[in-house]
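Annotated sample (chain length 318).
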Amino acid sequence: MTDEPGPAERALYLAAVRGGGRLRPEDLAPADRPALAALVARGLLTPTATGWTAAGPRALGDRIGVELRTRALRLLRHAERLPATLGPLARAYDEARHPVGAPSVGPSAGCPGAGVVVDTAEVRGRISELISECREEVLAAQPGLRPLEGLRMALSQDLSLLRRGCALRTVYQSVTLADPAVRSQVALRTEQGAQVRILAEPYERVLVFDRVVAVIPAAEDRSRAVFLTDPTTVAYLVAQFERDWARATPADSRLDPPPVTTVRIGRLLARGLTQRAVATRLGVSERTVAAHISRLRDRYGARTLFHLGWQLRGEHRD
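Output written by the structure step:
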């Protein structure tokens, strides 16, 4: 049986509703029997001495919603555990490619991603892999505008990085935080421990992972990048970053926190409450809750209410 009633079930249920909420045996055709059995199994029709009575569908919707959310949470937790499960295999793979004590050969020694990468998708993929494998810190100098959609897509991975104890330090320019939506995205990271500073003077774009791998652009449009592992080169880029970081100013005052009511609604959503339940708990209208949820969805880049609740669950575990 599927999660939702099919066309035949819907038609039979609506016929019962139009008949005053009752369905008699003589109202049924032989072809209606499978739909009748399914409606009874779902609890949408209740058997009586003279036939069947229609039950309210909201309880069914709530029950199915809970079951679907529970199923989705189980899958998402499995997805979060998967990197740790595959960790031993990944380490064995890395050790096989780069045996301990083997001589370094060329720029790729010690890092499968070293060298020039010319495909935009591959650049993003390798940076994502470096973030997933990072164990201590990420340093990022990001001049100019930051694509909002890119920040939203990277949010989950950045928060995971911070929650496992890694440091994330980023230098931006003032123009970056001029967009409120970008400020909100940056604030989501600083709320979890990321540090952000603003530097007015020009500087070069660079990413450094665990002070072992550095990434610099090889094209103005960021379609190509160079992955560097030479210790002297990486140390030089780290020194440049630290110099810029020391001259930059903290961005805390520019990152506006969400309103208190919005935070409270976020906490309740993180606990799995529906929009209606949140409105009842706080004693406000569903329209008010919907407005706050809309702001939260924009802030987190969440497409659905469930996705929003999942994004919020790491921040509000109380």
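Annotation: The mean pLDDT is 81.
Annotation: The CA atoms of residues 208 and 214 lie 4 Å apart.
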